[in-house]
Amino acid sequence: MLGLDTSAERLAQTITVLSDSRLKVTVYAAGSLVGPFEVFDAVAASVADMYHATDYYFEGKSPALNFFAAVPYGLTGDELCVWIGFGGGQAVWDEVDAEFNIKPLMALNTGVQMGGWYSKEVNRPQDYKGLRYRMPGLGVEVLRRMGAEAVTIPGADIIGALKSGAIDCAEFVGPWTDIWLGLHKAADYYYYPGFHEPGFNATLGINRKLWDGLSPPERALIEAAARAETTRSLAEFNAENIKSLNLLRADGRIKILRFNDDLIRTFGKLSKEVLADTAAKDPLTRRVYDSYMAFLAGVMDWGELSETGYRDTRRLALA
Fold it and tell me: Residue 191 forms beta bridges with which residues?
């Protein structure tokens, strides 16, 4: 799958080449070794050595895993990298995954995603009642509380479900991957922003026994390769989304719409409730939540002066 699977292949090649093939990584497509949603268990049980996937699919193991994948109105891609790398995120992530014999690393980031493809316009919270919506993670719980019916299917199955009417709406990533998947041919309304996935992270999950058996230089090599691929993938997604957005804008049938303020406020209110309810599920998830939210508050404060402050003045200066 463009952007996602290709990033996994690139990471595998990087580890193999940098180690002079001492660490030879082979990528198996989803479903070829185990089922798409079975990779976490496979690595935990030493059936596979590594997985490359998004941890919100495994929230049944621990709700805390959501915080290392994507959080509604949470950290952006850059901010997530900072929390995990320098804000205490990696330490609590290691603690969560230690229960499952897994060592986790960031491996890919798409940046802010789009809000999804819709078969009809949505203007009020009530418009979500009865909508069959494909979305994973905590974001879908927000929509469920608005009356939507949550549907979780692999990305490759989205286009068929939209065309058949099995679902009414779906989100995947952004213009680049969505065009490749063909979603622009199945629905007319493309909404933004993706409140549910502001900084999507894919995990390189490594069997803990295998990880502990590696030498310090080998572990450092894998960590460096994963960090490099996270940076490279984020840059690639941004570059390709720019080009693909132009293609969508040129299609007179497709309507690119911003969620209105009423919907954004509703998403925000329910997102807070969903996060609080998730944090209350167990003590470790609560500690992850506390770490995440404390960092979010700090980075939002600094961001108002730095990134947001600059972008606001750039818009004014170049108007």
Answer: 116, 257
